[in-house]
Amino acid sequence: MALENMSQMLRKAQQNKYAVGAFNILDYNSTKAVVKAAEETHSPVIIQTSAKTVIFWGTSAIMTWVRELAESSPVPIALHLDHCKDLDLIRQCIEAGWTSVMIDASARPFEENLALSRQVVEMARPRGITVEAELGAIVGVEDDIHVKEQDAHLADPEQAVRFCSEVEPDCFAPAVGTAHGVYTGEPKIAYDRIEDISARTGVPLALHGGTGLSDEVFRKCISLGCAKVNISTQLKYAFINGFVTYHTKNSTEYNPLKVIGAQFDELKRGIVEKIKLFGGYED
Ligand SMILES: [Zn+2]
After folding, report:
1. Distance from C-alpha of 46 to C-alpha of 55, rounded to nearest angstrom
2. How many CA atoms lie within 13 A of 271 on its CB side?
3. What is the rounded CA–CA span in Å between residue 237 and residue 248?
4. Which of 82, 104, 143, 170 is catalytic?
5. Residue 149: what pLDDT?
6. 180 C-alpha vs ligand 1 centroid, how far in Å?
7. Furthest CA-CA distance within the chain
8. How confident is the model over 227-266, as pLDDT tens digits?
9. Are 279 and 45 in contact (CB under 8 A)?
10. pLDDT score for 278
11. Distance (Å, rounded) from C-alpha 32 to C-alpha 30?
């Protein structure tokens, strides 16, 4: 199928109380693992790229892998740019064929965040590109965005309502207590806020910082209105561990294709597990 944007898949997920997994890819092998995991579970999926990954490979290389895999695939696939502060990069991705983008102006004062996010919606919507926007500060490190614990703050529900009615994002990422990276303690998720913001805005919510949350936490967040779940750190670990574990076990063998195969299996296994947990899949 041709790539699609996030609109239909998230609305459907929101209505049926499941979530679409958004997985941050690193290269062709990890992109293929995401697509094959979605095919195995007959699920829609969001291929997500960090701004850093886009800068590392360039838009055309990524677009070639994604098109090649998506066009021969029977499941709905969106290509989404994760956390981006840079309007030029957003524009480049839109022009290259990304079907969805995230503007992350959450570090700016509220009014500026609102204006910038709105500007991205105005740029993207006429071209059929969906937009995710963020409010509040999600703790941790994502790409080149560092948020220290003392600077993290949850999204204010009153502001969230105004933000969503003026920006009209297709997907909304309010900070609700999850964190990017690896959790060191038990995360304190503001479930009441997820429920409140979801009910009052009606916009499908994105849950960031998904890696490391328990199955129970995921299920609860999804039942309250999170229709998109971001998984990034898990793929970074599987990418390295899949590779290293194989080589450690077969240290005299220098067959790169076998190592790449082991890495693919490790990535896909974890992605399938998450898609099944998020619901909305078929055996
Ligand atoms: Zn994030």
Report:
1. 19
2. 35
3. 16
4. 82
5. 66
6. 6
7. 61
8. 999 999 999 999 999 999 999 999 999 999 999 999 999 9
9. no
10. 97
11. 5
pTM: 0.95
Residues 81, 53: contact at Cβ < 8 Å? no
Give pLDDT, residue 145: 64
Helix (H, G, I), strand (E, B) or coil at 267: helix
Ligand 1 centroid, distance to 258 Cα (angstroms)? 32
State both tokens at 138.
């999600």
Close Cβ partners of 149 (under 8 Å, ≥ 6 residues apart)? 139
Q: How far is the CA of 137 from the centre of ligand 1 (A)?
A: 10
Q: Nearest to residue 272, comparing CAs of 74, 45, 75?
A: 45
**Residue 82 is among the residues annotated as catalytic for this protein:** yes
Query: Which amino acid makes up residue 96?
Result: A
Contact 229, 207 (CB under 8 A): yes
For residue 207, the CA-to-ligand 1 centroid distance in Å is: 8
Distance CA 54, CA 231 (A): 17
Burial 157-180 (b: 16+ CB within 10 A, else e): bebbeebbeebbbbbbbbbbbbbb
Ligand 1 centroid to residue 209 C-alpha, Å: 6
Phi and psi torsions of 173, nearest 5°: -115, 90
What stretch of H or E contains 52? Answer: helix 51-57
Q: Which residues does the chain have with pLDDT short of 50?
A: none
What was the pLDDT predicted at 114?
98
Give 52 Cα–ligand 1 centroid separation in angstroms: 13
Integer CA distances (angstroms), 134 to 114, 157, 170, 227, in order = 9, 13, 11, 15
Contact 263, 242 (CB under 8 A): yes
pLDDT of residue 49: 98
Token pair of 70 as six digits: 């998506």
CB 18 within 8 A of CB 200: no
| 38 close to 231: Cβ distance less than 8 angstroms | no
